DNA sequence: CGTAGCATTGATGTGGGTCAACGTATGTGG
DNA sequence: CCACATACGTTGACCCACATCAATGCTACG
């Protein structure tokens, strides 16, 4: 494991405030693994053996039921997933797979729980992380229940544009079929939603999207700080 | 505030393990308020001044956007709400209103945050509570994205039946219009969904539902531990 | 009583899923 | 280098899930 990666992980909200010994112990106990794209890292309903930290690449969280499947979210460097399952020592509720070639740090769940009990600053950081994740999930539920698919796409584009500098040129960065699942629709419907956004100032060119008229798109999308803000 | 209420609150997962001084300080700092039905206790986008504990009655969590509104969940005695907002000292993402005559204990947010920093056992309980809430929310998101409205209703009935003793007679306990919002559909569609469950062994009689054929209903509903379990 | 709110039902429209066909890369092996 | 296979995105036809609008009956309550 590269030193620069360790430095980056240390900067995570989750690890920033904890003691050196805590951090070192966790990193030492962890395994750094490389995975090609498309590898399933964890599967729902399995016991939570590790806390996962994405050091490089891209991981998709998803879940299935009765023959259907949906994407819950993505984890990019540097980010963690399934913290809650690890803390409660219960089965995963989500599955995870790599979308790109990825490097992932796996920390044994028992070590995380133990570290939390011995380092108050770390536990405090966990509270912060869980609260943030909880609030993001509330926003996602509101996104799903209060908006149509096309509206979700419009807001996703606005947010992606800001993350990429606000130039009005958006690179999807993920396949459209995965984006469709993320937004809770079928690939066919995503195509039609893109078409429907044409009159609202959106020009599609393969994986490159141009927001030609930001004001019109915003008027249609109706972004809300209580749904779309990333931070909190 | 009655002594027996204090005893019950003390039994909450959130307060069970904390020090006596922590608990007493929080309860002393809190205000016990009575509200008639239909009172809005908090509104989304307002700063989080209090942690709320429902001592008696029934509270609905809901959220609105662009003229639409949806129910996120219910809080029954003894239960807490908006813990995450309080911990992050940020605005509420949900609103809350009483559905019945209720008694609610309001604890100033600053006291909660302070207590957490001074009582490790309390902080540990907060981690447990947040993890549980997070996982319940993941389940709700899966419920929404992976099921149709009628399927959600069928599973809701199965769960309500178990909570009420498993006799096969289910009392709704809330208005059908509120239930519809909870399940993410309109009141009209809830009526039709009830009708659609007739062939699957469900008999409706106003607010009293009879599950005449449990096996048939379960076969239709396809309940899953990864979506419908209350505990975890 | 009269009125207001709620549940139900029907008619109708829209969002979105399903199925099928087709085009366009991107590879792979001959 | 080409033929072929595969995966993906797009488009059209069609159908189901669900919302909307309107009308009706019911119950609860002042």
TrEMBL record, chains A, B:
Record's GO cellular component terms: cytosol
Domain Cyclic nucleotide-binding: 14-116
Top-level taxonomic group: Bacteria
Domain HTH crp-type: 147-215
Entry keyword set: DNA-binding, Transcription, Transcription regulation
GO molecular function: DNA binding; DNA-binding transcription factor activity
Stated name of the protein: CRP/FNR family transcriptional activator FtrB
